[in-house]
Amino acid sequence: MTLSPALPYPLYLDHIRAESRRFREVLATCDPDARVPSCPDWTAADLLWHLAGVQWFWARTVRTRPAPPSEDVLEPERPATYDGLLAALDEHSSSLVAELEAAGPDAAAWHWAPVQTVGTSYRRQAHEALIHRLDAEQTAGSVTPLDPALAADGVLELVDVMYGGDAPGWARFEPSEHLVRIDLTDRDAAIVVRPGMLLGTDPDTGEVHDGPHLYVVDEPDTAASAVVAGAAADLDAWLWNRRDAAGIAVSGDPAAYEAFRAAVSQPLD
Predict the structure, then answer these.
(1) The model's pTM
(2) Which of 48, 55, 21 is nearest to 33 (CA)?
């Protein structure tokens, strides 16, 4: 069974609230100078300010839709105290949910991802909060399970948006001969991807793209040559480089798996 591409939008809002609340709860009693295992250059205080800043940015982007972010807008100043950071998170998390809810998922809004709607931020910010909640728990040494349905959608978002997706108009996707199937063993679901290369130059930034990329194949006409299998939460955390590959099974053509790994091994914060 192919994985459904998204959760109901109100559920994304529920997850933003719940994951942000857990993130705060864990960091409120954490040593501000504790190192974040997945981002060792960050302290707990840095992690706290990172999510607060991300939620401020997207609350503002939704509020000023559909215009893209302006470089003239001053970002909020980082509070000098840890209590101030916690208060900033409270303010920006609340603002993000309020702006998303007021706009609704169908409203046009700028996003760096291809789908230019507020709904894209519903989904992206639910996963942003989820993964940084995991960062917070790993920092504090108190990890709790990821929601399986959200994690399954996170795997799809990773391969279809973060590491892949349709090539923009200025680029081309050169597919490999391989298909790789990702089996989410606890969800009775699978995602099939074709690794390849994305080539082109972004006319807005001048950035040259010449690297591995993935394309989700909705209706494959041939069998996958490699399979990556695991529980949704394990796969989501592994693809985000938040855990090792324990419990994740790989079978089939090593070349196909290596092409897949090349695409999903790029760093993500």
Answers:
(1) 0.94
(2) 48
